[in-house]
């Protein structure tokens, strides 16, 4: 049985499209990333899967259950660890009191371990906590009962890099123990180390489902380099303008060359790394930065220009998806 099945799932807010004809399957034991820029439809999809929104059309099955059937879905919710994008925690409760409530609803097996692991000041009022510590409360709630399915909407928001690493380890451990994870993000690199496959949603429609390795290969790297002189090093052959030499370097896209000395150059690169290194080695480099291409660049290159749809996340605000009612 698949952990999550969406078939032509559609949700409109009046005349505003949230999602339309989204079909995908998340297999048991995999980590599936749901990628897209803010407002693309990620949260609407997750809220509908969790039963907080009624679909306009299509269907969804979560752990074999129909979220629109409240009685049928009640038991399944206890087997899900859900982290909303905005947990909506009661600011007057302490973290411990909130976790007590969640334990009454769905049980707990590892709460104390997770509180210690994340360094959560559980006895403090939630309203007095930083954004990162509020996120820790929600994370402990999502993981503390060893759920079969983790549904995580922008799970690392507000976490510092060390805690993001701890979160990654926690997901990997859960999956090693047999869990399935479905997590949304608008940052491609955030899901790179965790996910087996990703679905890319854009303006409410599913653009593609791909293996992470395949997507990264297509996306390429964003290269920013400051060149102290446009041509090769002294004594080597002259190639003229830096943009002319980049035109001959296979795999370059979106080349931008600024003014000044050193000359700022940026481009997306999908070619062979040896060729890029050879091109760089021919020039006096003042500064260099290479990182994964921004997800927005991936959209524009592979899936076309945005079509100007309204922001579905704003249209869906107030749908009652707080973590306090997740079970």
Name the poorly predicted regions: 232-238, 306-327
Principal-axes geometry comes out as: globular
Described by strand count, sense and barrel closure, the largest sheet is:
6 strands, mixed
With strands numbered from the N-terminus, the spatial order across the biggest sheet is 5-6-7-3-8-9
* Global structural class: alpha/beta
Main attributes of the structure:
2 domains; four-stranded antiparallel β-sheet; six-stranded mixed β-sheet; 13 strands; 32% helix; 327 residues; alpha/beta; Alpha-Beta Plaits; Rossmann fold
Q: Would you mind describing this structure in some detail?
A:
The chain is of the alpha/beta class and 327 residues long. It folds into two domains: 4-216 and 308-325, Rossmann fold; 221-292, Alpha-Beta Plaits (2-Layer Sandwich), CATH 3.30.70. The protein has twelve helices and 13 strands. The protein has helices at residues 42-49, 70-77, 95-106, 111-118, 131-143, 161-176, 188-192, 212-219, 242-247, 273-281, 295-302, 312-315, and strands at residues 4-13, 16-26, 31-35, 57-62, 80-83, 149-153, 180-185, 197-202, 205-211, 221-227, 252-257, 263-269, 285-292. The strands form three sheets. It has a six-stranded mixed beta sheet, sandwiched between helices. Strands 11-12-10-13 form a four-stranded antiparallel beta sheet. Helix 6 (161-176) links the parallel strand 6 (149-153) and strand 7. The longest helix has 16 residues, at 161-176. It is globular and about 70 Å long. The two termini are 22 Å apart. Mean pLDDT is 86; it is low at 232-238 and 306-327.
